[in-house]
Structure formats: C-alpha cells, structure tokens
Amino acid sequence: MTVVKTINEVRQFVKEARLKGMTIGFVPTMGFLHEGHLSLMREAKAQTDYVVVSIFVNPTQFGPTEDLATYPRDLPRDQMLCESVGVDLIFAPEVDEMYPAGHSTIVDCEGPITKQLCGASRPTHFKGVTSVVAKLFNITLPDKAFFGQKDAQQVAVIEKMVKELNFDVEIVPCPIVREEDGLAMSSRNSYLDAEARRQALVLSQSLNAAKASIDAGETRVSELIALIRETIQQAPMAEIDYVQIVDATTLLAIDELNDDTLIALAVKFGKTRLIDNLRIRRR
Amino acid sequence: MTVVKTINEVRQFVKEARLKGMTIGFVPTMGFLHEGHLSLMREAKAQTDYVVVSIFVNPTQFGPTEDLATYPRDLPRDQMLCESVGVDLIFAPEVDEMYPAGHSTIVDCEGPITKQLCGASRPTHFKGVTSVVAKLFNITLPDKAFFGQKDAQQVAVIEKMVKELNFDVEIVPCPIVREEDGLAMSSRNSYLDAEARRQALVLSQSLNAAKASIDAGETRVSELIALIRETIQQAPMAEIDYVQIVDATTLLAIDELNDDTLIALAVKFGKTRLIDNLRIRRR
What we know:
The structure is a homodimer. Chain A has 10 helices and 10 strands.
C-alpha cells in the first residue's frame, strides 16, 4: 500500500494502474475510519482492481459553527485499517494541496435537493461536498466510487452531480453498517458520552418502529413521522433536528409512501448531531 | 468525419481513439464558425491525434435579455468547415441532451474573476460557461482543449476552473484572428450593418493606439484607458460597456502595467456587443 500527499503522485499511480489494464475504485473518506468505511473499501476491492482511498477532512463542507477543529483524526490507525482490507493507494493531502490560496471554484447542485433535510440546518454543506468530490473524481479518475447509504442525502446529491456534470463514474451506494445494538456507525459517535451513547439507540429503534408499521400496512407519511418522533422523544437528551419522509431520488416531501422512499432523520445529543435513515423500496 | 448528437456516442468514439493510442484535442464552439474557430481546430489537429469539436449554443451562458434566440446558426456550413480542416468528430447535441429536465448542477468560479469586465454586464455568463465546459470536458475527456484569446476573460476563468477542480486537461489559448482591416472575428459580427461594421474598426484601432503608446514608454493605466476611450468615441455609434486594464491572470485592476497585463474592452453598436483585447507581456 502506498500513501501519498500530492495530487501529482495520485495521478501517476493511477495512470500506472490503468496502463496495466486495471480498473480503479475510489472511496472518499474524512478518515477516523470505522467498519462502515471498511465495508466500502471491501466492496471496492471486490468490484475493481486498484483501490484508492482519500483521507481528507474537507473544511468546505463544515459550517462556521460546526466541528471542523475537533473532528477526530488518526492517520496512523487509518493507514493500518486500509492496509488490512487491501487498499492500494491512500491519498491524504494537506488542506493547501486541495485548496491553494485564492481557490474559489465550486460545484453546486442548486435547488431543493441540497436545501432539504441536512441542507436545512447545514446550508453550505453539500456545496462543499460536491466541490471536493468533483475535485477528487478528477484527481483519481475512478471507474467506480463507493459511498455509504448512511449519508443518504449525500448519495442522492452525488448521483445528481455525476449525472448532470457527466462524470464517467459509476456511483455504488453501500448499506449502512451498524453497531451490534443498532447504532449506525459514524466517526462522530466518538463524541458521545456513555449516557448519550445509550440514548442514541432511539434513532435506529425509531426507524425499526416505522419499518414494523409499514410492514403492517401503514403508508401515511404523517403517521409514520409521528411514530418516529414519539420513539425518539423517549430519550430525554434527544433534540430532533428533522424527521422527514421523502422521495429517495429527488428528496422532495411526499404524503404517502411511493416506490422508492427515504425516511431520514437527524437528532442532536448535546453538541453531537447524528443521522440515520431507512430506504423503503416497494413495487 | 463523424457527426453525433448524443453523449454516449461521443464517449464511444473517444474511447475507440484512445484504444488506438491517440491523444484527444477538443474545441468547444457555439457554431456559426469563422476563421477564428478554424485556427483553433488547425492548432488542435497539429497538437493532438483526434480532434473533437462541439457545436452547441449553450443557453445557460446567455442572460435573459441577450441574443440566445437570434444567435446565428448554420450546422451544414459548420460541418463543411470542420471537415475542411480535418476535424474527426463533431458533437452537436440538442439542448435536452445537455440539460435534461430538472438539471440544476453548476460550476462557478466565485469572486472577482467572473464579476469584472464582461461579468459586470453579464452576471451569470461565466457560470454558464464553466458549467457547460465542465460537462464537455467530462464527456470528451481531452488531453488538450483549445480556446481563442478573443474571449480573454473566458480563457482566464477556464484556466482557473481547470486548476481548481483538478481537470487533467491542458488549456491551449490561441491568438485572436482578425479580418484584414483589423476587426476581431466573431460570430456576432454578422449582426452589424455596413455602417456599424465600418465604425467597429475603432476597437482594434484603440488597442493599436494603446500598444503604440506603451511602446513609447507609457505605463500608467489611467492614461492608457483615456487614450482608448477617446479613440473609441470617434465612432458616433459606439457605446462603451467597459475599457479595463487588469492583471491577465487574476483580472484584478492595476494602476501601472505589470508583467502580464490584459487590456480588455466591450463596446455596443446598437444591440450588438463586441469585445476585443490585447495582452501585454513584459519582462
């Protein structure tokens, strides 16, 4: 496994792999890797020949009051984990390498898809995401890129960007990986103290309750949202940011479950904001 | 020469050329080709193996009151001209192919580089340009792309976008091509009646006057701008949009000529807005 810090080195290694006829898989991360990230890398390894992982805490996707400074980082541990699943190349640039002085070019999916859900409380977040992912795609030129469904809105936004800017990249969304007790894995789980960690179980529990209700025939969005909110509110520390049920592609609000629905929620425990979601496909 | 209308066809032809080991040159145009465009294609042909030309009147770079509807079009003639200089592939998509319903992803160089000069009177123009060029780069994946220095600000903006979004494309700016009497070639020259066409000569004449003054030792921007304005105002139909002297890379205003200066101007003759410029490199 190779670890590089510059764009030119990435280009060189990727070109060498291409010349050998290898396909390129790409997994963008902000590091502090957990089993969720590793599942993406294993999938990349299964589907492509040469797997590139970026580890970059991208400042432009954090709002001014968010946790950029405290976001957890552990590159030595991340490297070991990447090596353990057979990653070929890590790209771990400094901020200056990605954003030299004067940098001002952005990519933005304008309209409701980035303004709903997490976009409502994080108004510049997805512009930061699409801008850095566009850069990383141009740097790594992958055949396939792997994203976790945990960030369901991110997947929808990236899929829209890829389609509308005509990137020749296949986006492969991968299932949410959960702790044994159901909490969706996230680097931000490390912020939780023991009590918050225990109470955070209401996120997955509320989605399970919604799933059970849907399996029993419920299709009304208002009823499902009420059920989810009630479940979450059983945790005294939980402060709901949003609970929404939307079309999984457009992320626009719906009244009744449709063919491909996303149930998404964000809940704060103290300063820690956690997200979780459930996708419901019906024929 | 092949002419295609779909993105998938372009990808296929470009991939076939790549498999043969050919390098790809790309010349984006809005059609109604003139000698300026042909000079770009000849340069592309000289520097690369397989030359792709796009012919697409991009609606997103026109303002609401601009000449999108009347912009001149003549695809059969354009095809003949492309063939005459050895173009390999023409991509002439319909608007729907480039912007399907719901399209909202944009690329923008934020800040003064797109707000100065033409950006002042055409506030959304460069956002439209960078967005469509990003799409076209992703569709054609060229080694080199060729742009006319006639659109000096466009070249500066595209170079910034390529650098900041890490496109693996070399931008090759090519010299302005002029009519025998000095008027810079432009598809919009076709709008001019005989009298306006005659008076439009003041554009190149004003730049020549500035050049002569610089050769004689003038370095003060204010003096040069005054000289250019006086020359243009000798044409009674001329209505100056701007005359500016800026750093050629940042497009920021300067007081004295520097190492790489751009003198740029836009002048309206009736409804027809013409631009011209002169780049002054000094050691």
